[in-house]
From TrEMBL, chains A, B:
One of its GO terms (cellular component) is cytoplasm. The lineage of its organism: Bacteria, Pseudomonadati, Pseudomonadota, Betaproteobacteria, Neisseriales. This is Pyrophosphate--fructose 6-phosphate 1-phosphotransferase. Transmembrane segments: none annotated. Keywords: Cytoplasm, Glycolysis, Kinase, Magnesium, Metal-binding, Transferase. Non-allosteric.
Length: 405, 405
């Protein structure tokens, strides 16, 4: 009798710990006697029967996934609609699954991808083909509903807050009058920009202002706040989420595009803020656009994040083998001091296609800061340093050439 | 009899290891019975008699300088002209030095600051006041003449090359057609952009193109090279120095400013390149502007860089006490495999106000790459990982409150 077989896929933007979830899933499958295929390029590869055999890869290579940023199998933003909307995709999928005798599906992704997983949990009902589907959360944006935090967020938060603390020391060296703007990811939510606040051990330390998508941008209030910080601290370090919006809910970077530059867009929210400061105050600010660096920073992963990512993958496999389907492995916080958490089953219906913004109780009354409750929330997620092996002065990542099926 | 006394100052932009040179100087002074003052904010603070007493700070606090980015004493870009040009400054300086009985000066800075040190080495001749002056090299730009490399460069090179390798993994996950642009510092020289090349272990790995100030930017050749990399590798990661110029020697970011946007400047060379790709190829590239992150990255210092920075500070103090003046501690490379180096005395007249560009033998024939000789040059400078202590998930830098004199 051949082993039962699962297929694992990675979907959406990579994180520094996405591959740690793959490692957790694969190592657990090996222990449990489950054969594990991987789909290249997420749902796209699955639908096109582009699969690989993880069983043929050495334990040593799998162990390295703990350190490696990116998505080792390849990701895509290919989604799959409901049976009613996308019946052709469902039939193609049945062919692929049947061809390889796959009856377990692991979807490691963000809210859109987990929405697909939710729909595919109905596969047996619609297609008469037994398929168990379990989700593994992943996103640096931390916007997944149903889990206290998402694997990927803690390492990006650690990268950004470390950078903010370091730049704060650099700015302080340079004396009075400096303004620095660090643009973080976060198209709709401010979790990443907010994490920068962990860098400040007192009000003098960077960052001095946060600009969050959850708070409508008001230029007058912002400029007054910059004036205030420059007067009090001689400097102003700003963390701005790429997705800040004006009072009408329009992205400021889009407002810029239409009003100032026609169709030519350069830079994003960070440069837009710099432009505003130049025009209204004559201040020439430095801008860092961290871009992909903040989600690929495997040289300084959060140990907690890596561990949670691993355990989510592990638990997802155990649940599949226990016959569960239509659920995601979620993180439940039990307490803050000391941080204590557990894994819980979350129905995919709760998670899919939803978005969790920073709640009001995490945002400071001035709209430019976070509350102590948020700092209690974020700190444990950045805890511990997961440093990869280095060779010739650089992180020694060794991409796996997954053997095609 | 009171101890002889030196004053140490930091000048120009900070680096991740500038404070390691301060540590080397201070610890050596303690061993040798030399009293060491520091000047706040470089030459500005020295001329204004804003000094601090490093002797009053604990050994434990001094030891932490090894890890701390920024310039702990504060920096400025204040320079001092020749005696003929700036006699008032020289007279003010004599008053300050005499008031504190200081007869030794340590200038830790880049080419402009070391030019000042060169002029001040003539202090006794012009002012009749005995003053020994020794320089300690510092710059992430690596553009100092007279030393094989400059402390500060290795750590920035390590940060940038690590980031490029990590982003390369992220891009590879996302499949075909991606273009990523990382803008590095380097207004006149390409040492930092070139260092990114160390990330690639083969031609498929990022970066695929380097844009260096030493090679005039040619849009047609560049676009053809992007087309080629996309066709061959499905992606194109580009490291661009902020100071690339066109055939007339104008900065492309300035050309942009005048021709396209009037007086409003957003972004720099990286965004200018992105704009070009959008206009000429319809490619929407991601841009990272690393900005201060690349020179403040104390969370991942190069051990070799930290060590060299320390030894430069140590040796400068020993030379002062041996009666030397008008020299800088320079690094002399003895061999590459294994890397072997020594310290040598370099006359400040060789160093001051000069600039070392990437030599032709380090630039690939296509103008978009570096040679194996450059990789042999840069790799040892990034060697070893100097990780600071962490607390609550972040680097635990503890700024020193230097006691004012």
């Amino acid at each position: 009798m051949s082993k039962p077989r699962a297929v694992y896929l990675q979907s959406g933007g990579p994180t520094a710990v996405l591959n740690a979830s793959a490692q957790g899933a694969i190592e657990t499958a090996r222990k449990r006697g489950l054969s594990m295929y991987g789909a290249f390029d997420g749902l796209a590869g699955l639908l096109e029967d582009r699969l690989c055999d993880t069983d043929a890869v050495s334990d040593e290579a799998i162990a390295q996934l703990a350190f490696m940023p990116g998505g080792s199998f390849g990701v895509s933003r290919r989604m799959i609609g409901s049976f009613a909307e996308a019946g052709d995709d469902w039939r193609r999928l049945r062919e692929v699954l049947a061809r390889h005798d796959i009856h377990y599906l692991l979807v490691n992704g963000g809210n859109g991808s987990l929405g697909c997983a939710e729909r595919l949990a109905e596969f047996e009902r619609h297609m008469g083909y037994p398929l168990k589907v379990v989700g593994i959360p992943k996103t640096i944006d931390n916007d997944l509903v149903g889990t206290d935090n998402s694997p990927g967020y803690g390492s990006s938060a650690k990268f950004l807050a470390s950078a903010m603390r370091e730049v704060g020391l650099d700015m302080t060296s340079m004396g009075w009058g400096r303004v620095f703007i660090m643009e973080t990811m976060g198209r709709h939510t401010g979790w990443l920009a907010a994490a920068c606040a962990a860098a400040a051990r007192n009000e003098r330390e960077a960052p001095h202002l946060l600009l969050l998508p959850e708070v409508a941008f008001d230029a007058e209030r912002f400029l007054a706040a910059v004036d205030d910080r420059l007067a009090r601290f001689g400097q102003c370090a700003i963390a701005v989420a790429e997705g800040i919006t004006d009072a009408d809910g329009r992205f400021v970077a889009e407002a810029k595009k239409s009003e100032v530059y026609g169709h030519e867009q350069l830079g994003g929210a960070g440069h837009w803020i710099a432009q505003l400061l130049l025009r209204e105050r004559g201040i020439s600010a430095h801008v860092a656009q961290v871009d992909y660096l903040q989600r690929a920073g495997g040289h300084l992963g959060s140990s907690m994040d890596v561990r949670q990512a691993y355990i989510m993958g592990e638990r997802a496999v155990e649940w599949l083998l226990a016959g569960k389907s239509g659920v995601m492995a979620g993180i439940k916080r039990i307490q803050n001091h000391p941080y204590c958490w557990d894994v819980e089953e979350v129905p995919l219906a709760v998670v899919g296609d939803q978005e969790k913004r920073l709640p009001p109780e995490y945002i400071g009354a001035d709209g430019f800061s976070v509350t102590p409750a948020f700092l209690d929330y974020v700190r444990p997620l950045m805890e511990g340093e997961r440093i990869p092996p280095f060779k010739d002065g650089l992180p020694d990542y060794r991409p796996i050439a997954w053997p095609k099926v």
